[in-house]
Amino acid sequence: MEWQAPPIKRRKCRQIKVGNVLIGGDAPISVQSMTDTDTLDVDGTLKQINDLYEVGADIVRVSVPTLDAAKTFKEICQKSPVPIVADIHFDHRIAIEAAKNGASALRINPGNIGAKHKVEEVCKCAKDLGLPIRVGVNAGSLDKDLLKKYGSPCPDAMVEAALRSAEILDEHNFIDYAFSVKASELNLCVASYEALASKTDAPLHLGITEAGGLQGGTVLSSIGISWLLKQGIGDTLRVSLAANPIEEIKVGWSILKSMHLRTRGIDIVACPTCARHGIDVVNIVKSLEDRVKDIKDELKVAVMGCIVNGPGEALRADVAVCGGNNNSCLIYEDGVLQGKIEATNVIDVLESRIRNKIEKKLDNKIL
Ligand code: SF4
Fold it and tell me: Is residue 278 in contact with ligand 1, taking CB distance under 6 Å?
């Protein structure tokens, strides 16, 4: 029998509901991103939300910087295929307007909302409408008194900021909130989440903030988020990249799939190639990813350059191809050799076999 990693034991926490998406408890870890369009541009924002939904976004956050934006936000919420979180800073009136206009949750930083009564008004509004709140602490905007007390951003300061922010919510018996304690410094961020996880039973939204561009940010986020997930910490996540938000969703899903926490779509195993390769693995994978990006059902595909490791990977794949001699390659299904084809046909053959396999799986489900 194939070796399997022991399942990750999730940290116990209470559950909140963002639209139709459950966060915390034993709910699947959801993947989020944030639009980077102008919220006044309803069509552009909805287009991006739909694109994010297509690649697997469970939730999308939209910044609502003005009262005018809170008005266009209404149509965005009405037409969105996923629950929308309103991201609010500084002005509690915008939070209240966005909540009334269809937000499925509010993300606020109580520290910059100002006077206690303003946070209380937001809390009351969210409670009346049944909306959860994410209390988002960021190392870059810690309160001055905490910086003075601790000298610089540190896990204790981050945790104190989070718990202090939630005090007002607790005072009003408002328990539908989640925390995030984000920092761009990896170790600080991870240590802050670890420290907070032992002090609250609220769900935790994970993310390494301002992680950088596509490559650097993916590496940083993957290390930090998986480090926490492996400990059972984390109930929803956003990979923060200075890149197209679609990449954030793709990376988020890759993290969850790699850790066997969720499954979605075609999983491609591919060798890095070397002088032995009999097929153009790099370009086959690139084309195949594009051809099968619409498939949401789970399937494992292996694209291997030669017979050194090809047959071994084929054993663990639903569909596999392995480079052979004289511009040919071998096709496998469920580890069993199906035959030899010309390398020039490999992408068409792989796509067709993948789609057939998915159809068969669906037929079996229906039966
Ligand atoms: Fe090289 Fe073959 Fe290994 Fe691919 S499977 S890296 S081509 S030896």
Answer: no
Tell me the C-alpha distance between 177 and 135, whole Å.
7
Q: Are strands 336-342 and 205-206 parallel, antiparallel or unpaired?
A: unpaired
Q: Grade residue 224 by pLDDT with cuts at 50, 70 and 90.
A: very high
Residue nearest (by alpha carbon) to ligand 1 atom 2 = 306
User: Distance from the CA of 349 to the center of ligand 1, in angstroms?
Assistant: 21
Residue of 60, 49, 56 whose CA lies nearest to 263: 56
For residue 312 and ligand 1, the question of a CB distance below 6 A is answered with no
Closest CA to 332 of 318, 342, 345, 346: 318
Mutation test residue for ligand 1: of 274, 282, 322, the one with most atoms within 8 Å of CB: 274
Q: φ and ψ at 18, to 5 degrees?
A: -105, 100
Distances (CA, A) of 262 to 27, 28, 257, 345: 11, 7, 5, 32
Region class of 260: left (phi > 0), else alpha (psi between -120 and 50), else beta: left
pTM score, whole prediction: 0.93
Spatial contact of 304 and 310, defined as CB atoms under 8 Å apart: yes
In ligand 1, the atom with minimum distance to the C-alpha of 306 is 2
